[in-house]
Amino acid sequence: MLWTTLLAFAAAADALPSVNKWWKRQGSTTMLRFGCAQVVIDRLDPLVQPGQAPSSHMHQIVGGNGFNTTMTTSDVSNTASCTTCAFSDDFSNYWTANVYFKARNGSYKRVKQLGAAKQFSDDYSTKIDGGVLVYYVSAQPGKITAFKPGFRMFVGDPTRRTADPNLKRQNCFRCYSGPNFGGDTAAPCQGTNDFTGFPPSPCAGGIRSNILFPTCWDGVNLDSPDHKQHIAYPSSGPATFLNLGGNCPSTHPVRIPQLMYEVVWDTTPFNNKADWPADGSQPFYLSYGDNTGYGQHGDYVFGWKGDALQIGMDASGCMGAKCKTMKNQAIDQGKSCQVSVKVKEDHDAWLTSLPGMDSMPMQM
């Protein structure tokens, strides 16, 4: 089946009971798709730069309130008391770099995030006031092993400024061509409006980031020095969303959930080409000074309670933010979960430089 069709059905399932019934008949495929509101925006990175405050660039973080400058515990679910995510047993942390608009006069403004595309009707898509949509998919043949306490990983390369052909369908930006995000239901990183870097022209409905993590694990190490060596993409089959048919390499034989981040950036206030650089080049920057988008990356620290995620991966026919006996929470409860800002910087003012990229007044 075409995955454009699959995602179109998935998008409508919350609103249409008949579609929900269709999805459940698909058998072993499970796709947990749920929103997580922001828990904090801060210049911290406990995975890549543990103990460093401030870290080198700004991040937007969602998930459990155990997020801190240093996260050394093997089970972060024990350090968190609440989560911003739809599943109340998910105390994981998910984070990405922020996006900034650079005006023709050289000043920067943070681009705010939106919820999910309008065809998703649940509160954790439409009422999170930004944040991240998270996907966990068990659509590969064979057993899917949920992550273990202490598991961490990182995908992408913030230093990259040219396209990485190995990540063509794992790291992309979608240019929404119209209102309500253009109604584009193509599989992530496989649509006609998908780019491996920032789109070169204004996007009428905003820009969506997709970051797809590897689906194979060495079965031994919960982390590695670069936070990548213990994981791998399939060695055969399509290296795309859902990775159906992709075989894991012998060095990383254990199949793990397909984890994907989806972030919608509201670039529409900055679509006036008169405000763009005089040479017409695109004006958006990731928070570490990357105006290509090729350095897009994502960080993940696993923090589900007990076997809650394994229950979801073992289930069949689950779609969206509800699955079998997995616990949910109300959106207001999720949005009330917050972490105090450690590095005091103005997140919404016009700035003369990106935070961390130049000397900038800051309070600790």
From TrEMBL:
Swiss-Prot/TrEMBL keywords: Signal
Q: Which residues form the signal peptide?
A: 1-15
* Statement: the UniProt record of this protein carries the keyword Membrane: no
User: What InterPro entries does the annotation carry?
Assistant: DUF1996
Name all DUF1996 domain ranges: 45-304
| Name of the molecule in the record | DUF1996 domain-containing protein
Q: Which organism is it from?
A: Lophiotrema nucula
